[in-house]
Amino acid sequence: MIEATYNEKALVVEILTSAFETETVENQINLIVGNGKDRRQRMQVLMAYLFENSMLFGKVYLSDDRKGVLLINFSEQKTTLKTIFLDIELAFKCIGFINVPSVLKRQRLAKKNHPKEKHISPIIFGVLPEVRGKLTAARLIKQVMHKYADNTLPVIIDTVTEYNLKLYQKFGFRIMKREESLGFPIYFLRMN
Questions:
Q1: Can you state the percent helix, strand and coil of the chain, rounding each to 5?
Q2: Number of structural domains, the chain?
Q3: pTM: predicted TM-score of the whole model, two decimal places
């Protein structure tokens, strides 16, 4: 496992974009980027935004083969000029004003279902399509869990896919809540 630096931003954005660009089912990413002609570019903006936030308020981990990535945020986040700029850039270049209400609704839902206490949130993880199903993701999750083995903070994660739900449950996460108010199921899970 490699802790990423800003030098790996392009690689991280490419891994995450490649991992999610063919997903067309209703989910949180498609809520934000949509399915239009410039979908890949908007997705790259979203993944760059997530990278920047995790570099500011968490960690970014690459798999040893540099084909998988996991972004983590810690709950202590502050509003700064940089975060305001990142939010505005995301709204203009990715979300579009018509989708802002839906994205804000999703953010309120996440805030409601995350604890008020300090916690850790894996934000997103993905692998290049060529290594999907070849244990890159599972190995990276195990390595990150080992790194945080002494952690006493709750770890909160959410997912919309049954596959990820089962994977997280294998690692010891338990379902706190299932929400469907956005038109698709979101599972909020917790460990610790």
A1: 50, 20, 30
A2: 1
A3: 0.88
